[in-house]
């Protein structure tokens, strides 16, 4: 157990150092901020053009601010396995004493930090540029909701990343899940707008509960008001981490059997 904890810590530090070895801090920061701002701006313009009071520009801006953490929590995490294949280090990872799951869990810890930074900046953008009023939100409650949301979404990212151990890359699958989140999770319009048969799918995503919880906190909701949503997110997140562990074990064996570790 201690070895696995050390492996997670080491993987987190390596992920942080390798990030800025490839892309400089300035370019990285521009990419993070520009992606969050322009995605939000695009959907706000669409909502303004549509003129639907149920999906006002403020509603859309806040939803996209919360959804911005998925770029790191889902896309960043699931791309880790493909990146290791691309640079030819997947086989080396498998030769270490630490199980592959814990190596990628460490990368997920680093991506969760990026996700929390991204969503914080996105909330600032929503407030400054699109008039989203967060003055009634309790800072501690808002931070707790975002932390739980990020935790749960990283678990989903690990599930997708585990598939990338066997496949050439999990990038396409990660992109599908990323944009399904924008469609199904109440980010740009209420879930009630979806067809009845699609709506149950929305509640399989932790982001749905995270977006709803942040909306409640923004209008003055307390920790008790959103505790049910947070417990549901935690349950989904823990289930995702457990599933990811077994999936990493399965796809690791399958990759060894089929010789696909270095296939990119």
Largest sheet entry: none
Q: Which runs of at least 5 residues are low in confidence (pLDDT < 50)?
A: none
Oligomer: single chain
Q: Give the N-terminus to C-terminus distance in angstroms.
A: 32 Å
What's the β-strand tally? 0
**Using only CA atoms, what is the Rg?**
19 Å
Using the alpha-carbon principal axes, give the shape. globular
Helix content: over 70%
Count of helical segments?
11
Element-by-element helix/strand order: HHHHHHHHHHH
**Which percent band covers the strand fraction?**
under 5%
Give the helix/strand class. Answer: mainly alpha
Averaged pLDDT, please? 82
Total domain modules: 1
Highlighted features:
264 residues; mainly alpha; 11 helices
Gist of the model:
The protein has 11 helices and no strands.
Descriptive overview:
The structure is a single chain. The chain has about 260 residues and is mostly helical. It has one domain (about 1-260). It has helices spanning about 1-20, 25-50, 55-65, 70-85, 90-95, 100-130, 140-165, 170-185, 200, 205-220, 225-260. The longest helix has about 30 residues, at about 225-260. It is globular. The mean pLDDT is about 80.
Describe the SSE topology:
Layout: H1 2-22, H2 25-50, H3 57-67, H4 70-86, H5 90-94, H6 100-130, H7 139-166, H8 171-184, H9 199-202, H10 206-218, H11 227-258
């Amino acid at each position: 157990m201690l070895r696995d904890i050390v492996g997670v810590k080491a993987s987190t530090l390596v992920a942080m150092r390798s990030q800025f070895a490839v892309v400089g801090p300035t370019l990285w920061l521009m990419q993070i901020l520009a992606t969050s701002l322009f995605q939000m701006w695009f959907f706000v313009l669409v909502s303004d053009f549509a003129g639907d009071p149920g999906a006002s520009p403020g509603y859309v801006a806040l939803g996209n601010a919360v959804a911005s953490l998925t770029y790191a929590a889902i896309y960043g995490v699931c791309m880790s396995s493909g990146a290791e294949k691309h640079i030819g280090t997947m086989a080396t990872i498998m030769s270490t004493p630490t199980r592959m799951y814990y190596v990628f869990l460490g990368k997920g810890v680093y991506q969760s930090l990026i996700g929390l930074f991204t969503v914080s900046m996105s909330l600032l953008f929503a407030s400054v540029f699109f008039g989203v009023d967060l003055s009634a939100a309790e800072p501690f409650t808002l931070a707790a909701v975002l932390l739980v949301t990020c935790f749960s979404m990283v678990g989903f990212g690990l599930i997708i990343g585990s598939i990338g151990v066997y496949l050439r890359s999990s990038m396409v699958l990660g992109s599908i899940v990323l944009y399904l989140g924008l469609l199904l999770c109440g980010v740009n319009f209420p879930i009630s707008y979806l067809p009845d048969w699609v709506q149950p799918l929305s509640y399989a995503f932790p982001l749905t509960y995270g977006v709803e919880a942040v909306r409640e906190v923004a209008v003055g909701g307390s920790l008790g008001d959103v505790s049910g949503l947070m417990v549901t997110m935690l349950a989904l997140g823990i289930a995702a981490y457990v599933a990811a562990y077994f999936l990493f074990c399965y796809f690791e064996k399958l990759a060894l059997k089929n010789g696909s570790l270095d296939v990119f």
